[in-house]
UniProtKB/TrEMBL annotation:
Residue numbers binding Mg(2+) 1: E229, E265, D293, D336
Record: active site: H98, D101
SUPFAM superfamilies cross-referenced by the UniProt entry: Xylose isomerase-like
Gene Ontology CC terms: cytoplasm
Main location, first listed in the record: cytoplasm
Keyword Isomerase: yes
GO molecular function: magnesium ion binding; xylose isomerase activity
Family: Belongs to the xylose isomerase family.
UniProt name for this protein: Xylose isomerase
Cofactor binding summary note: Binds 2 magnesium ions per subunit.
Catalyzed reaction equations: alpha-D-xylose = alpha-D-xylulofuranose
Species per Swiss-Prot/TrEMBL record: Silicimonas algicola
PROSITE patterns in alphabetical order: XYLOSE_ISOMERASE
Amino acid sequence: MSFFKDIPSVAYEGPETSNDFAYRHYDPDAQVAGRRMEDHLRFAVAYWHSFAWEGGDPFGGRTFDRPWFGSTMDHARTKADVAFEMFRILGQPFFCFHDADARPEVESYAENTKNLEAITDYIGGKMEETGTRLLWGTANLFSHRRFMSGASTNPDPDVFAYAAATIKANMDATRKLNGENYVLWGGREGYETLLNTDLGREADQMARMLSMVVDYKHKTGFKGTILVEPKPQEPTKHQYDYDVAACYAFLKRYGLEDEVKLNIEQGHAILAGHTFEHEVALAMSLGVFGSIDMNRNDYQSGWDTDQFPNNVPEVAMVYYEILKAGGFQTGGTNFDSKLRRQSLDPEDLILAHVGAMDVCAQGLKAAAAMLEDGSLEAARRERYAGWDSDRGKKLMSSSLEEITEMVLSEDLQPEPRSGRQERLENLVNRFVQKA
């Protein structure tokens, strides 16, 4: 079957094109900051939102009518056929998936694993045909009712055991498909009320699961990166992996900060009350940056709406932080984004990705130009220049008594200096407008 009948392969045609099915800014082979644009951005399509989401919301059921919706392996193979057809049309290099996105969900762990192994082989054949690679795999440990009280943090040890076995199966699948990362997405690793929660016990359980994942990575020779995804508020009221700072504190507490990196999502950053660039920059500064999910929220809804990116200045600053730190290693740009439930047509799915890829490409070009220009970094260095002086360095090694003596002897009365925020915002916009 051809779900995307008569939709052409999308190619770069430049900013002036009026062709909807063309890239205006994403030119895979264009050189940006010494690398191909494709190698900088490392785009990935999310299997779940693109092919498994049915268009429901809290007030209504499914709106999409897809020929692969169903509970058999034939449906799973049809879904894979359609997915790789879309990958070919878009020409993007990677995809990501949960186990439950790709195979039917049944009650038996053994049958789920058998189906996962079968669809892994089928997807592997598709990957060989198209050259599409796996950015990361992960396990769905949140949708089934058995995980209503968490997976690794569940009060029932049998649920912990089921989750551990499920992770093993998915790590095996990811390794077989040469995945470049494995993600732990703690959708329900948190609590709703302290009345029935033992915080210390649940933290220890979560750390034990993550430690077993790291051990299994080394036992099996998996070369990819283990990633944890910060996620606030939803669906659990108090998430243990709330943001980058919370995740780093957890990793540091249990001695895992050198083994595990973070997959940072724009929508989750917003829910945590941060900007996307803040979360990326903080992860970089702590040495735990791994990969990103590029999706935005509706700022008025207060929920994770997973919309495709459309704000070039926001995106530019994220890629600025990534480029400044040397770019992606094993990570990339995954579109954890879904269509609006009224966007029913096959063309909508293609065009959503085309627009998102162009927004990211334009942001990347602006980021690279800002770095090459150097004005932003020069302004930052100037603001902290005093700390690079002998006086500043001495303060960092002095005692309170010594500093107090200096302040008194000099009758020190420092005057505030402008942070020049508006000037710097204007500078960023200049580069965005040129990109």
